[in-house]
Specification:
Largest sheet: none
Distance between the termini: 78 Å
Order of helices and strands: HHHH
Number of strands: 0
Radius of gyration: 35 Å
Number of helices: 4
Helix content: 55-70%
Shape: rod-shaped
Length: 135
């Protein structure tokens, strides 16, 4: 059995009464109660409770935000490249006539409908499984 160190301490009357009531139960004694309480208090003070409770969750949220930021940069870069290439291509085209404008309007409406279908399905379109799914 390990040697124990004796301490003398002073408690407020209300705390003392609670300790006496708890120690009166079978199998309980004041030394064990105070030792357990002091150990628990010291353990809490030594470890940051917020890190224990929220550290893992905050790390996961941080990783998710990093992925979202990366994905957003990829989307913005893709959009900028698409716009640049479209403007370069269209700069050399003659003024569109009525049939070309009608074809462009139909293609735009088909594009908007396709975006709507993808958003409604909840499936990402960056890496489609097959081209016919996107039609």
């Amino acid at each position: 059995m390990s040697k124990k160190v004796r301490y003398q301490l002073f408690l407020e009357p209300a705390v003392s009464q609670r300790l006496e009531a708890l120690a009166a139960k079978p199998g309980m004694n004041k030394s064990a109660i105070l030792s357990d309480a002091l150990t628990a208090w010291l353990d809490r003070r030594g470890a940051n409770e917020l890190d224990d409770k929220f550290g893992q969750r905050l790390n996961r949220l941080s990783a998710q935000l990093n992925r979202l930021e990366r994905d957003q940069l990829i989307q913005l870069e893709s959009l900028a490249l698409f716009i640049r290439l479209t403007l370069l291509r269209d700069a050399h085209m003659p003024e569109p006539d009525a049939s070309a404008r009608a074809l462009a309007r139909d293609r735009y409406e088909a594009f908007v409908a396709q975006v709507g279908r993808h958003l409604a399905s909840g499936k990402p379109s960056l890496n489609p499984a097959s081209p016919e799914e996107n039609a």
